[in-house]
Design a protein that fits this description.
Blueprint lengths: L6 H16 L6 E8 L5 E9 L8 E2 L11
Antiparallel strand pairs: 1-2, 2-3
């Protein structure tokens, strides 16, 4: 299995997300992922991509309040 996307793959995904945002398909995009802590421990995290919110570190899932917005 492939673990890390290439820059080209990541760029294609980001272009698609921006295109959908520009078409007003959504007004918020949140990335959910697992933060590596140790070989046995991962912490679920979330990071707001749109709107961009500068943070030193992403918020743990249990502190985040995910919202779903539809037009």
């Amino acid at each position: 299995a492939k673990d890390t996307p290439t820059f080209f793959e990541a760029a294609r995904v980001s272009q698609h997300i921006v295109s959908l945002f520009e078409q007003e398909a959504f007004d918020r995009c949140t990335l959910f992922y697992n933060k590596f802590v140790s070989a046995l421990v991962f912490e679920p995290r979330s990071m707001s991509l749109i709107p961009f919110e500068h943070m030193d570190e992403s918020a743990p899932i249990n502190q985040a309040t995910p919202e779903i917005h539809h037009h």
